[in-house]
Amino acid sequence: MLHSYRLRLHRGRFALYWREDGRSRRYSLGTTEKVEAEVRADAFIRAMAQARAPTITIAEVWERYRERLKGRPAYTTMAYEWKHLLSFFGDLRAYLITEEACRRYIEYRRGQGRKDGTILTELNRLSNALNYAVKAGLLDRAPVIVRPRAPPPRDRFLTKAEARTFLDGIAALHVRLFCVLALATAARREAILGLTWDRIDMGRRRLHLTDPKAPETAKSRAIVPINDRLHAELLAARQRDHIAMGSTAFVVQYRGGRVASLKTALAQTCRRSGVEGVTAHVFRHTAAVWMAEGGVPMEEIAQFLGHRDVTVTRKVYARFSPEYLRKAAESLDF
């Protein structure tokens, strides 16, 4: 494991002290100059770390970390992320990752047309895996992972006219149901695709986004009311798919099975409807913007979105409220 080194004077010369196997150790740095001693100490510590470095590879670290996340959405996502990281880092010993190797990976992915946001996500996951390895005692220290800067947040949201046009351009009924659910609940994509009929109370008109069988994650999910538009869509879907009360079938389904992704279907609808830039997340963002524009308090919007901290909601959506900075503007009137 990583030792805690201390730099101290010993008989007029600087030395490194640390404890190992229950005993105090000392290494003379052979100099009376502190700056020189610090340089020599750094070289010594690096050499010691390399000599003791475990043989575990990045591939092994990744798999150990992925197993720890089994049952969570990240477990599946990591399988896709690893396909790209494998060719660069797979067989490399964990302690040998360098900042230059990270920079080459960034350029490699950019050359494939990937945006910095995607690359950042992949390298963040790699960093998380390495930090886990340290906590698990697999590594003494985690190497520094150089990452691209986070891109500015996407601010695409739909007007209500655009939303109607987009819905009119949808060819498949299950895609339409997903879009209406997303706009009416502000739920995340995975929450909607995992929603089953037994969590929809049509009598009380409430929808439970939290799956009681799924492991708890950092992303909270809400219980939201069902508005008139969504109620009509759900009734039609239940009749169309012959769904019995209390059924555990998926609400958004295709040929009786769960839908894995709607990325292609949404892209096709964008081309067909002429409404560009629509992704699953755009619906969630749009719903929050509509609520803010309608004067809904930030605390209620936070509950709808499943935000545990209303500060996050306020930071993103307060500017869409009709009351945003109104008092400040009025104070400047003359």
TrEMBL record:
Which CDD domains does the record associate with it? INT_Rci_Hp1_C
Q: Which Pfam families match?
A: Phage_integrase
Return the similarity comment.
Belongs to the 'phage' integrase family.
List GO molecular-function terms, semicolon-separated: DNA binding
- Record-annotated Tyr recombinase domain positions: 153-330
One of the protein's GO biological processes: DNA integration
Q: Does the record carry Phosphoprotein as a key word?
A: no
Matches recorded under InterPro entries: DNA_brk_join_enz (IPR011010), Integrase-like_cat_sf (IPR013762), Integrase_catalytic (IPR002104), Integrase_recombinase_N (IPR010998), Tyrosine_recombinase_XerCD (IPR050090)
Keywords of the record: DNA integration, DNA recombination, DNA-binding
Name of the protein this chain belongs to: Site-specific integrase
Q: Which Gene3D superfamilies match?
A: 1.10.150.130, Intergrase catalytic core (1.10.443.10)
